Amino acid sequence: MERMAKDKVEETGELEWALLPRGEISQVEGIFLEKNTCNIWDKIWNFQAKPDDLVIASYPKAGTTWTQEIVDLIQNNGDIEKSRQAPIPLRQPFLELVITTYSGINQANAMPSPRTLKTHLPVQLLPPSFWEKNCKIIYVARNAKDTMVSYYHFQRMNKTLPDPGSWDEYFETFLAGKVAWGSWYDHVKGWWRKKDSHPILYLFYEEMITDPKREIRKVMEFLGKDLTEEVLDKIVYNTSFDVMKNNPMTNYTNVRMNHNISPFMRKGVIGDWKNQFSETQNKQFNEDYEKNMADTSLLFRMEL
């Protein structure tokens, strides 16, 4: 009986999800953003930062949630129970997110200091008060091939974004920068340049995978904390992919997304693009990448 009831709930949830309309995108200064975000852009642009605000910035699907949980555990001195008192979106507002009656801006404004805020905005669209207040920023970047694949599957299961279409269609859309939050190239390069003039810790997803304790230590030092090796090891374990994937406070199972299509936390590996790219697509991508990355010292690892 319980199983039948559970199946009925799941079927009803699937039906409700299927009937939800897809989100739309519009533009702010030539950058594609969710339409709801564009509709309140003046409010976002005029957001008032505080000097002790911390911003976690990234292009979508680059390890943002992972970095958020690392930061939260460092701030809480490794107190796992404290970090598990609420889902991560409630602990760290998503600045530009607007869904029905929810607004990341409103949530941030209602929070006491110190605040930790999340954004996917490209550097030129970050509200100017963050630069004026000299707020610390952690930026995490992931190689473009894995980002593209992860973003594709994320759009499939998340109806706040437009339907991504087929993989072949999405491949072209992504390369053209016609996805929410714009071009991957411009995003990672813009934040890379900004780190020379602002307190920005620039992290790489691939380095976090390869040596998580070293990268977590970098975050700890950037935040001015001094935790014991025992606490660092505890944070390494509790922010591992398998632990976070099974943690309802980090895996977004409490958010209206269709995890049956694709889980929010899907694989968390380097080089999964090889399972998605055709040989022709890989050749096309490499040519496009070489052209667009010719003007930067920024380097990414596409595989282990």
Automatic annotation (TrEMBL):
The Sulfotransferase domain, residue ranges: 51-296
Lineage per the UniProt record: Eukaryota, Metazoa, Chordata, Craniata, Vertebrata
UniProt-recorded name of the protein: Sulfotransferase
Transmembrane helix keyword on record: no
EC numbers for this chain: 2.8.2.-
Pfam family, one: Sulfotransfer_1
EC category: transferase
Gene: LOC101393475
Family of this protein: Belongs to the sulfotransferase 1 family.
Substrates-to-products reaction catalysed: 4-ethylphenol + 3'-phosphoadenylyl sulfate = 4-ethylphenyl sulfate + adenosine 3',5'-bisphosphate + H(+)
Keyword terms, alphabetized: Transferase
